[in-house]
Every structure is written in C-alpha cells, then in structure tokens.
Amino acid sequence: MPEADSGDDHAALGPGDRPPALVRVAVVDDNTWYRDGLGAPGGLLPHQRVVARAADALEFGETLARLPGRACDVVVLDLRIVRGVAPDPLHGGPVPEPPIQGSAAVAHVLAVASEAVTRGALRAVPAVLCYTQENAPRVHLACLLAGAAGIVLKDQPLDRLAEAIDAVSVGGVVVTPDLASLIALLADQRRLDLTDAQAQVLALAGHGCTRQRMARQLHLSVSTVDKHLAAVRATFGDTRTYTDLADAFGLRAWRRPSRKPAT
Fold first, then answer.
1. Residues 84-108: pLDDT tens digits?
2. Who's near 207: CB < 8 A, 6+ residues apart?
3. Which of 60, 63, 67, 71 is closest to 20 using CA atoms?
4. Class of CATH domain 194-248
5. CATH number of the domain at 3-176, out of 3.40.50.450, 3.40.630.30, 3.40.50.2300, 3.20.20.70?
C-alpha cells in the first residue's frame, strides 16, 4: 500500500535558489530496497525527508490525500516497474491494469499532481527525478520531453542522487553525460527523436550489418531498410557514421531476439 509520512513545511523557492532547509521527497519504486531504504538513516542527506512511498505511478496518486502539509518537492521515480505476475482471471480475480512505466509514468505523476494542486490537495507540482537502471538516452529524452526534471542512474553513487534531488528541488535540470551529448546532437540537427523502425535499422547499421542482413533480422524488405536509412541520412546528414549515430542514441546494445528454429 502507498504510504505518507509526517514532515514539516518550508517556504516556496524559485529556480537558482540554494537547497532549502528541508526537501520533501516521494519515492515511487516497486523495489522495497529503494522505496524503504532511501528514507532510512544514511539513505539520503539529513535535510531530505521521504514523506511518501508508492510502488508505482498509479499508487502515487493515492498518497496525495495523506501528504503532510499538502507538500512534496521531488518525486524520485523508477522507470521500470514490474509488480509480479497478474493473477489468473479465472481463479484469482480480475487481471489488474499493468503499471505505468517510462515517459508515461512521468506524464501521469505530473498530471495527477497538477490536478491535486487545482483542487487544493497539493501546494505545488513537484519536480520529477527519474531514478533508473534504464540507460538508453532515447528513453531518458522521452522522459524529459514528458516533463521530468532529471535522470540519475541507479549504478551511480547514492551521493549523486542526493545532489540531484537538491538541484531539481530549486528548478535545476540533471542529465547524464550520454543524454547531454544526444541533446546537443538533436539540437544541432533540430530533431527530437527517431521512429522505432528507424532506431532498429540504425542499431544494426551501427554494428556494420549489410542491408540484406538487416532486412532478414527485422523481417523487412531491403527497400524498406533503404527507406529508413535514407530517412536517417536526410535528418543527420553524411558527416557522422552510422556507428556514431547509434552510439549517440544508445542503440548499439540493441539486439533483436533470434527466432527459434521450427521443430
């Protein structure tokens, strides 16, 4: 069940101000190690207080009615949430809706918070800080476009999370170095993203695959592969190799699962 903890109030701050005397944090994560551990002694900095916990973005909405002082400054949001296998609809009741993940979770948290502000249940919309094991810059970019204030990877030291919480609590933005490079590339080209099909073709092109091999792996025609490659070149020009572009988008780790041979 979602939880809300007691906490004190502090005055509203604008962008560029120093970290406040108290930063109220909500943790949205299906992993109890993070959900409970971040609020334990030694988890975050002394002035950062976990005032709410939820297992997913939907449960976060339920915590707003119990927030002390109607205040939350930062939501630390996991992007990949798996809450176990759904119950059997025949023997275990109705199958619940799947948890909201990724950029959709960011948008949901902000929408719920905005609605709570409108009806007076929350003083201000909190900043959303994505805390995740997902390291694909494309996913991070989608979260920023959905309204997130920053991204911190879970394999980074906990001090980095604490610093990021302070930064976004006063209007700052926190991104990974890979995401910063991607944003620079996209800003230079005036392009925000690739389509999924273009991303898959670019991932294989970044590994040096031939057009024929890409077509076989993706179950496309060679002409369709050529169309996607042409679209990538039309967007980014000829000055960067496919490998460089695939690296910028964090795509070279992508692999299409091979189909098992028929038995």
1. 545 555 555 555 567 778 888 899 9
2. 243, 246, 252
3. 71
4. mainly alpha
5. 3.40.50.2300
